[in-house]
Amino acid sequence: MKLSVPFIPDPGYADFLAQHVSALASIYFPLDTETVMDARVRSAISSHADTGETDRLNALLKSLRPVDKYVLANTRFVHPDLYSNPVKTGAFLNRIAQMDDATGIKGIVVADAYLVNALDQTAHHIIPKLSIIPGVNSMIDSREKFLAWIFL
What we know:
Layout: E1 3-6, H1 11-19, E2 24-30, H2 51-61, E3 68-73, H3 81-84, H4 86-103, E4 107-110, H5 113-121, E5 131-134, H6 143-150
Parallel strand pairs: 1-2, 2-3, 3-4, 4-5
Helix pairs in contact: 2-4
């Protein structure tokens, strides 16, 4: 059995995971941005993503290249700008595309079907490459909700 574990951008933790890469199926992590704020992340970085911050994250993820990587956007609150501001939506997807080029990103874990639609409407080149995974915060607790996600 392989594990899916959270990734914390800490060099010691990244080294530990790299030593156990054969036991990993996937890792998942939030992007610290002002438009998608995971509840566990409190500081905000501009959605125009500090290149240095993305580079540091990519450097830590490189040793985990064979492992599937998922960006967490599974908060129940997504800033309205991510739905309606193409600059911020594009910046978010550009950051994911940059990370995909550097380390490979398999998909996004989401809780909000509206976010999926907003990202899809951008026609960004990264969209067809990404899997969309409904996270536990999607609260798929009925047949109707399940079908709504399946036919998104």
